[in-house]
């Protein structure tokens, strides 16, 4: 691959370039923020504050503002390394100068294939300072997926973790390599070196025509950061591939205003907390949730991010006890795993005050148990990549409303419409499709006008999620519109049936889909993961459902699953995969409890129509 042949990792005697040690940031060349640098209290003392508006701000100006307000505050900690906001600002400016020297022009796309590191924050801000567009690449993607994304976005540069370089197979794409070796233990560093050798063909970060060291190139650049001027409301900032759980892949395009607006909305939701919070940063930055809630909102709050390159339950608990963070953005699967640990090894720290769960539905029992272990307020939020992504969050200053996604964020409008007639609002307390409008809603899908038009209805973003608004103003997600099961004309919401199944004795996990039925159109099919095969008793589970669900909601077909249900990395069941499998093997239809497989369904009452 053009690298000098090396015999052993012993040749790598020189440590990888470490910007936090070798190139400490200074404030000499900090650009001035477009917002006031200081505010004064009643006694004339300067007090740092966050942004007062999202309008007119480029995405990189969140970092500039934090650096001007609290330059010496620690911005991110990873391992035994730490960076201040002043250092991140300085380094992102110098990296922007390096990218410009490499030929990056306004509008160019630059990929980022990195785990949770300071380099991710520096790189994305550097790209934005060039008026270029960052393309988020998941480390979970395989080579063919990455190649398709790079071709679709016409991306020719990628800032990449060295051990992942082999996943980028396009010879025309140039790489700026980053290493996290020095963040690892001595034993793990040896394994990392071997992975690097397998990926780039060398033990060291020696460059060639295609491969360049991100930090060496940045450090060698003495140019000033480029001066850019553009309309944040119209200029693309970030491209997010999406659609993995819903069908054909698409690329969400977010403007600078989209991203800053969503950060501002979350900052306002915290009561304008600035320069005081410590945030546990284990959600992946490459995902829309981690990018917005941690990287963007964390910067808007001038929070200290306690980061680890990937989620690990043991490590996350260790970070909780060591750094005592106050804010934790999580997905339900994380809370489930941590609860299991806490039952035998109680959490020592009581520092957490807010735990915000998203990505998938959060079980009330899981939320309550985590709150008991940690002393934190646990709330649920909601969003989608097309909305930057956060649109709803639970109240951070009141009692929890388990089972709901809380309230719309500031300047977010939403309505619940008939799934079949989107111009018609449903009656209060009724279920319909959730539609969203607000400054965080995307510009559209990259080079896909047809999909963009289908995603909107008269200016409203169609979420594809079925929801209900309760009397107290909170919203609850009932399920996906495309996962709705219609049997004999009655709606069945998978989330309700799945909750009942998961509470049944002997059931470890469950999911349901609709399968074709000549008489009813569809009937409910359940996929069951049993606690142990020896304890699986289908008749007992049928009886359990009979006592808790109307007849039309009760599964008529059961399939015992070996292993786990198909889920994405956020823990959300991929119902599409179950439907595809079921077409090949529809399973055996078993008679209902009354012995008749085709007995008429019950007429539901309104109470049972709303998922609990």
CATH class of the largest domain: Alpha Beta
Secondary structure class reads alpha/beta
Instruction: Please give the number of β-strands.
Output: 29
pLDDT < 50 runs, ≥5 residues: 1-14, 22-38, 588-612
Question: What would the CATH topology of the largest domain be?
Answer: Rossmann fold
Return the average pLDDT rounded to an integer: 86
Helix content: 25-40%
Proportion of β residues? 15-25%
From the alpha carbons, calculate the radius of gyration and give it in angstroms: 25 Å
Q: Which strand order do you get reading across the main beta sheet?
A: 4-3-13-12-14-15-16-17-18
Oligomerization: single chain
Overall outline: globular
CATH homologous superfamily assignment of the largest domain: ANL, N-terminal domain
User: What distance separates the N and C termini?
Assistant: 57 Å
* CATH architecture label name of the largest domain: 3-Layer(aba) Sandwich
Biggest sheet features:
9 strands, mixed
- Indicate how many domains the architecture comprises: 3
Number of helices, where a helix is a run of at least 4 consecutive DSSP H or I residues = 17
Enzyme class: ligase
Region (Disordered): 1-48, 580-612
EC number: 6.2.1.3
Keywords: Ligase
């Amino acid at each position: 691959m053009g690298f000098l042949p090396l015999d052993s990792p012993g040749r790598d005697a020189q440590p990888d370039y470490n910007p936090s040690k070798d190139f400490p940031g200074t404030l000499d060349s900090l650009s001035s923020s477009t917002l006031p640098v200081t505010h004064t209290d009643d006694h004339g003392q300067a007090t740092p504050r966050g942004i007062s508006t999202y309008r007119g701000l480029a995405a990189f100006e969140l970092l500039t503002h934090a650096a001007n307000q609290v330059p010496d505050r620690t911005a991110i900690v990873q391992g035994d390394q730490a960076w201040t906001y002043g250092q991140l600002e300085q380094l992102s400016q110098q990296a922007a100068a390096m990218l410009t020297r490499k030929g990056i022009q306004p509008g160019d796309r630059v990929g980022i294939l990195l785990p949770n590191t300071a380099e991710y924050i520096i790189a994305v801000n550097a790209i934005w300072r060039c008026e270029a567009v960052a393309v988020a690449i998941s480390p979970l993607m395989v080579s063919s997926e990455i190649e398709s994304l790079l071709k679709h976005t016409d991306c020719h540069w990628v800032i990449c973790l060295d051990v992942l370089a082999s996943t980028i197979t396009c010879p025309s794409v140039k790489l700026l390599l980053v290493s996290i070796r020095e963040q690892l233990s001595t034993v793990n560093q040896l394994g990392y070196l071997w992975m690097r050798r397998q990926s780039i063909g060398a033990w060291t970060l020696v460059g060639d025509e295609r491969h360049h060291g991100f930090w060496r190139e940045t450090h060698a650049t003495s140019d000033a950061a480029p001066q850019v001027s553009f309309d944040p409301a119209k200029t693309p900032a970030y491209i997010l591939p999406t659609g993995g759980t819903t069908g054909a892949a698409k690329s969400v395009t977010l403007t600078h205003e989209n991203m800053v607006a969503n950060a501002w909305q979350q900052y306002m939701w915290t009561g304008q907390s600035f320069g005081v919070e410590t945030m546990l940063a284990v959600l992946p930055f490459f995902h829309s949730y981690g990018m917005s809630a941690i990287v963007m909102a964390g910067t808007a709050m001038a929070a200290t991010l306690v980061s680890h390159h990937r989620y690990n339950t043991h490590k996350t608990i260790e970070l909780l006890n060591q750094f005592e963070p106050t804010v934790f953005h999580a997905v339900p699967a994380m809370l489930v795993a941590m609860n299991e640990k806490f039952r035998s090894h109680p959490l020592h720290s009581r520092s957490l005050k807010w735990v915000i769960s998203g990505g998938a539905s959060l079980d009330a029992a899981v939320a309550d148990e985590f709150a008991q272990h940690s002393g934190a307020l646990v709330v649920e939020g909601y969003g989608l990549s097309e909305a930057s992504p956060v649109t709803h969050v639970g109240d951070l200053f009141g009692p929890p409303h388990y089972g709901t996604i809380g309230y719309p964020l500031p300047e977010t409008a939403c309505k619940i419409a008939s799934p079949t007639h989107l111009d018609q609002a449903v009656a209060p307390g009724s279920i319909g499709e959730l539609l969203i409008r607000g400054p965080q809603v995307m510009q559209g899908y990259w080079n896909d006008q047809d999909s963009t038009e289908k995603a909107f209805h008269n200016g409203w973003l169609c979420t594809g999620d079925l929801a209900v608004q309760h009397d107290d103003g909170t919203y609850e997600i009932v399920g996906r519109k495309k996962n709705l099961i219609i049997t004999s004309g009655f709606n069945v919401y998978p989330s309700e049936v799945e909750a009942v199944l998961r509470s049944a004795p002997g059931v470890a996990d469950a999911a349901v889909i609709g399968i074709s039925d000549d008489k009813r159109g569809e009937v409910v099919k359940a996929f069951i993961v049993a606690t142990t095969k020896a304890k699986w008793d289908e008749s007992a589970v049928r009886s359990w459902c009979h006592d808790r669900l109307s007849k039309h909601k009760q599964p008529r077909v059961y399939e015992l699953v070996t292993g786990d249900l198909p889920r994405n990395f956020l823990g959300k069941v991929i119902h599409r995969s179950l439907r595809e499998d079921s077409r090949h093997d529809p399973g055996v239809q078993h008679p209902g409890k009354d012995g008749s497989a085709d007995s008429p369904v019950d007429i539901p009452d309104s109470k049972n129509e709303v998922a609990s």
